[in-house]
Amino acid sequence: MKLTINFVIVCILYLQLLEARPSKETFNGKCGYSGCPVTPTDTINIHLVPHTHDDVGWLKTVDQYYYGQYPLIQKAGVEFILDSVIAELLKDKSRRFIYVESAFFFKWWNQQEKKLQDKVKQLVEEGQLEFIGGAWSMNDEATTHYQSLIDQFSYGLKKLNDTFGLCGRPRVGWQIDPFGHSKEMASIFAGMKFDGMFFARLDWRDKINRFSNMKAEMVWRASESLGRNADLFTGILRNHYSAPPGFCFDYLCQDEPIIDGDGYENNVKDRLDVFYDYVKNMTKYHKTKNIMLPMGDDFNYQDASMYYKNMDKLIKYSENRKVGDKDVNIFYSTPSCYLKSLNDANELWPVENDDFFPYATDNYTYWAGYYSSRPTLKRYERIGNNVLQVCKKILAANLEDSTQNLNFLREVMGIMQHHDAITGTEKQHVADDYAHLLHDAISACDNDISNMLTKVLKPDPIIHGDLEFKPCHKLNESTCEITENSENFMVTLFNPLSRETSSYIRIPIRDNFYEILDSEGNPVKSYRIRIPEPVKSITGRNSSALYDMVFKANLKDITSYYVKKKDKNDFENEILLSKNVEKNNSRDFDIDNKKIKLSFKNGFLNSIEILEERKTIEFRQEFSYFEAAAGNNAPPFVNRSSGAYIYRPKTKKIIATEVEVERFKFDENVEVTQIFNDWISQVIRLYENESIIEFEWLIGPIPVNDKIGKEVVSHFKTNIDSGNIFYTDSNGREMIKRKYTVDELEKEPIASNFYPITTKLAIEDTKSRMAILTDRAQGAACLKSGECEILVHRRLLHDDAFGVGEALNETTTARGKFHVFFGQSDEATIAKERQIQAKQLLEPYSVFSSLKNIKFEDWQKLKHEDASKIINVSTILPESIILLTFEPFGTNKTLLRLENIYEKEAGGTEITVNLKEIADHFKAKSFEEATLDGNQWLRVAKRLIWNTEKEYNEIFNDKINEEDMSSPFDVDVANVKDDEEFEITLKPMQIRTVIMTRS
Fold it and tell me: Distance between CA atoms of 461 and 458, rounded to whole angstroms?
């Protein structure tokens, strides 16, 4: 009887224990928050999160990583990870795993048989396999543009949604490896209705401070314009994204396994003692009794059984363990379940308003070099984005069902956003592979665009022959085979801005003379200007062009021009040009276009006068370079080398004290070519009726015969009294106020004040403002009042010892543009800057066709008028609204994103747009608003609500639980009674995504 009573007591205690801690039954076979374990408030809950971080290219190419090729470079094979993890999850329903990189997952998924795919779907539906983030790659946050970020999330999330339904939709961002974090990325997550984000990398001193003060988990206010609607709960991981020290159980690791046999090697107690000492220490840094422990690292789980067997033992032998006087639950979990536990705790959370740049790992390692590493690849990515937007719009407008080539470019552009792709922090052969992938994907979409133009313009085979449309993607080096070798040719321009606009077009030609006619037969004024010698000498340039023909194009949706060869004696404009061209080697002179006057001294731009305002600003632009630090990268790291990641400028060298110049003028169009030395040159341009100064720089190959790496900067000096304040954009969107600061302990005063600029840098005082707009991501700082410098190109001879294993020995020549704009320090100036940014983002896409013997009268028979109305939204969009996205999104469905590009702080207001014209033009059946990514209806999207500390609520008076800024936009066209039902309102900086269903 005594034995029986004792047995009953033991059973009762065991059952009570089961109620107190998660078990296999705790996971109820559901996905999402409903499948998460209930975490008791009086217990320390340890969330074990099995994960792998799989770089979509870094030391190896994307395919080399997937298939496990070249193990001597890195033992990494993603297909083995997914094979192994899926097999282990199927063995035990208590196990969980998260996966991030959709590019790799769908490559694996498409190779599996349906039987296994069905099992994987079941794992997703039961919450064992959970997707986190969901974009095509884990993107960088410093050098990426918001349009490309939204695109790659939209595409990745749609693939997950189409494959797994609601259970495949992530609720949490997992940005664990990017080198710093932007406010715009957090705002994008909020716009997609994510509930939170976790990351690992931030400045080492900031990290110490946050964990010491329990501020490592916070609510991040990501947008001043969008307010609480862009707030995002954000958590910082304590031990990078790795397992606790000593508890990595992967075959790549050296840590001891948990041995539970009967032999002398049994180490269960010792290993658990160490584990719980670590947990006890972790409790000091968290506001709740929940602790998340990532269990994984780079390319872990290639043999998942090793990890899971040891984690199973960790859970099994943790019964009856305590941390202090608290019971402990340890269980398999996910970041979203951890987030839900934090939300259930109903704590008050601190608030963050800044971003997390620059990132430093110690006093001498500011990761600011990658803002500018590989400038040609950064520019190529921006070209890829331009082609992608054109390809999407032209296919969507024509209801084209075949999206294979479009998806190819979408996927490659998603890969390009990876934090070791666009950043320039990959090995050289990987960078070459990215460029090849992008070239192939752009070419595929070029073919689709050409086919669509043929469909729209409807050339007659008898009259027009075999008319082909070919792009020239090397116009930045003045190269285009068709224009160089054709007597008559057509240039067709697609305007992705979806608003009538104008743009100056430059076409490379030999020494011929041409006349340009529009589709009505009206002559278009043009001028011919010699291509600068440094451009003609670019290494690898294969071109016979000697001149650029320049003209101003007035752009609708699609606009074509007829270009025909003329005899020099018959070409009045060319004669006029010859008479008015100024070529003068004098280094002191003035030029103007009746809006702006530029004064040069010793060949340098010395001052700028805004003629309409009669205001002169001292202004000097010059190039210099810093000698790159070349250390041994050994502790105590004082002698670290500058490398692909980090920026360690040392001695500064001025490139030139006098500059060789040539100046050319035609009407009010003026160009000045500056040659600083045999590897740096620049063209400064003023265009007629434009108040923008264009600087087109050419740098490279950077010489290293002296065995010294070089960091080249473009330096702008003005008399604007900006003090120590300047402004940089966040991924091309809202501006962030920066303050130049150097404390007494700062070891790197330059690098510590460098910030990423994706599109714009600005300084101002009470009277004047200068904005510098860039054509690619770069790093910049304003280290003195009125002065700013932009890091434009780098060539280094030493590795910085952060893993890439080779020097950033960039031998390329880079050519790029700055557009500099001056104005009053007022809202109107900032509005103008936004317009310039929009035009730079959505540049005209040009294709060329050799017309051979086609006469103008026959060319005119093409359907130019039909082509010019392909999207037909230009008349309804006010200047502050752009059609950010117009793309195919499934059968008879088109996705539209409308963006109000003005900031609240810069005078932005609510703007209402009526979409009736779009509805009529595309025979729309309905509109329904979705989340930013387009994969969830806004009317059903809900987010967790977070309570913030009192100080935050006193500063910001808007409601804590504020609903969405406006009601979802849902229109059933058949039941519309009033045109006002087509109206949609956008607040400053708001992007609204609408799915249009077509007949």
Answer: 9
Strand 322-323's sheet: what is its strand order? 290-295, 44-50, 326-332, 322-323
Which pair of tokens denotes residue 740?
């130049």
Residue 528 contacts by C-beta under 8 Å, 6 or more apart in sequence? 509, 513, 547, 548, 549, 550, 574, 577
- If one counts every other C-beta atom within 10 angstroms of the C-beta of residue 826, the result is 12
Whether the CB-CB separation of 685 and 600 falls below 8 Å is answered with: no
List of domains in the chain: 2-352 (3.20.110.10), 375-578+846-859 (2.60.40.1180), 622-841 (2.70.98.30), 875-998 (2.60.40.1360)
Catalytic member of 140, 151, 177, 446: 177
Angle between helices 114-125 and 78-91 (to 10 degrees): 60
Residue with tokens 């309102």: 985
Note whether 81 and 52 are within 8 A (CB).
Answer: yes
Mean pLDDT, 10 residues at a time, over the chain (999 residues)?
A: 43 38 52 92 94 98 98 97 98 97 98 97 97 98 98 98 96 98 98 97 96 96 92 96 96 94 91 94 93 97 97 91 83 97 94 95 95 98 96 86 91 98 98 98 95 89 89 93 93 88 94 92 93 94 94 91 83 41 66 94 94 92 95 84 96 92 91 95 94 95 96 97 97 96 85 96 95 97 97 97 96 96 90 88 90 90 82 74 93 94 89 91 94 95 90 53 66 90 94 94
Euclidean distance between CA atoms 774 and 819, whole angstroms: 7
Q: Which long-range contacts (CB under 8 A, 24 or more apart) does 470-475 make?
A: 470/446, 470/847, 470/848, 470/849, 471/387, 471/446, 471/845, 471/846, 471/847, 471/848, 472/508, 472/846, 472/848, 473/383, 473/442, 474/543, 475/506, 475/507, 475/508, 475/846
177 flagged as catalytic: yes
Alpha-carbon 318 to chain mean position? 43
CA 639 to chain centre: 32
pTM of this prediction?
Answer: 0.94
CA distance 867 to 805: 51
The closest of 165, 113, 158, 166 to 134, measured between CA atoms, is 158
12: CB partners within 8 A, 6+ apart? none
Please give the Cα distance from 470 to 847 (Å, whole number).
5
CA 611 vs. chain centroid, Å, equals 38
CA 77/CA 69 separation, integer angstroms:
7
Distance CA 181, CA 183 (A): 7
Q: Which residues of 246-259 are buried (b: 16+ CB within 10 A; e: fewer)?
A: ebbbbebbeeeebe
> Distance (Å, rounded) from C-alpha 530 to C-alpha 545?
9
CA angle at residue 383 from 379 to 384, to 5 degrees? 115
Q: Which two tokens stand for residue 752?
A: 């510590």
Backbone φ and ψ for 791, nearest 5 degrees, come out as: -80, 115
Using CA atoms, how far apart are residues 5 and 12, in angstroms rounded to an integer?
Answer: 11
Structure confidence at residue 794 (pLDDT): 97
